[in-house]
Amino acid sequence: MLKLFNTLTKKRSLFSPREQHSVKMYTCGPSVYNFVHIGNFRTFYWEDVLKRTLLTLGYRVIHAMPISDIEDKSVKAFFSQTEFSDITKFLKPRINAFLNDWQRLNLLKPDFLISFSESVTLVEKWIIHALENKYAYTDARGNVILDISKTGYGALYKINTKNRGIRIQDDYAKNGYYSFAIWKAKKRKDIYFNPEKLVPGRPASHIYCAVIANEYLGSPIDIHCGGTDNIYPHHENEIALANTRYSRIFANYWFHVAHLTVNKRKMSKRLGNIVYLRDIIEKGFTPEELKYFYLKTHYRKTQNFDYQLLEKAGRELKEIRSLAKEYVGKDDLFSVDEIYRSNIARIVFDDLKIHTALKKTLKNLHELTRSRSNKQSIAILKDLKLLERITGIEFLPKT
Ligand SMILES: [Zn+2]
Questions:
Q1: Quick one: CA torsion of 222, 295, 370, 338, rounded to 10 degrees?
Q2: Mean pLDDT of the chain
């Protein structure tokens, strides 16, 4: 019943998990080197909408998400500050703020919420396997490099094969065909682990995700999600890593959410335009208004944020609520079978075109105010209940 755009096939197609009734879903987690902003939460929210949609369709969803605690960015951020002498203490307020915002936005809890640092033993097992099976080799410093000519590369993204080489850093902007580090030997200022069979060091962030997804959910998984900036190199690298363990496909569907800009510019520390959930709440907006704002642009399109747009979204949400209010209590019990027949359901289940569904629902509500048709009011209330289940936003007062 659900059509989704799949980055792997570049097509919109009918979603069908391997098992009939359950879906294994992996979502890349927050980088907690800094406080998580509303741009990051756009992706987390749309992943929540996807999860709620699958639940509404009757699937059991098994969801794993990591907390990206010890990785390049957090290590760098930790050493560039002097307030905390312990990285755990440095990261704790950032992780807590993230979890707090997650709760305030009322996002569904993953079944497995695993931090990178608690998966190091599992990661070591994968690295040893890759070394033993010649997918990877150790360089003179003790870094372990995954040789992508042996794993296959470029399933999701158009790789520029002219740029070739080896990359040790996790983050690199230049598109190319790079073998990459999966274990980084300890540097002078570093946070490191001491596994039995490797030199002191730490895993790269790409391997953590591949390991957590496969080990906690089991291979293959049905749907892998993240922001569009994760596609290359992070998700390409995850696929290469999964290929070292399994001959089958890593994830059948790849779901990617586009960026959020602020006043048409990319959010960045340098521009000083980062917006956090707490900023929005301080200005008197509610988390639900932010969620409604997110829904106004399809997840695959870049969305622009400014406070006027947020205000407009908030007004529209209030309008839906106040128009719908007087019909509440006049409908029959909600049945999932019936939602399939509604026009709104068809729109929503077509690659989550919720912005269109909301527009139509609002129009229907205005029409209803004129017609006062009982039959129509029941249909609209059902649509709103469906939208509530999928978006996690309350449109109707609870009776
Ligand atoms: Zn990831």
A1: 10
A2: 94
